Fold this sequence. Notes:
The chain is an alpha/beta fold. It is built from six helices and seven strands.
Amino acid sequence: MEAMLNKKIAWLIAMLLVGGSLSSYSALASEKKAETETDSSVVVIVNSENEIHDISSVELKRIYLGKINYWDNREIILKATLKTGSSLQEFWLSSVLEVTTREYQQIWLKNIFTGKADPPESFATVKKVIEFVSENPEAIGFVSAADSLPVLVKTITVDGLKQLKKEDD
């Protein structure tokens, strides 16, 4: 129980620190996005032991906003995400979850303080997201469609679609 509280406090401190530097960071992130963006679609992944094959966009959004916390088999959902600033994370927040980075952080601060849900695990690289999902049967995450996946991870469809496409500017 104490470890869970420490994790929540650490996440809160990280969000407060990130929140203070978002405006200066967004310009850097935009430059980085233009330099590193090589793929225009995202896939949702789960552990290959997970029985889910399709999810609605509404359910997916509710999972990542802390409104759905358990799979149908009553196992807790372990959400994996990327750290703030990556182009993939920006796309995920704006196009899939339909929130800004600041709104997302505020939602999770509220969830943590009210005890409604545990925050997603945040990783610096897609490789770490894939590793986390491959090691946890209850995990869900998202990666670029171009990323290669080990056999311990499978893609699922969202509203019947295999990929979530980024819109061209």
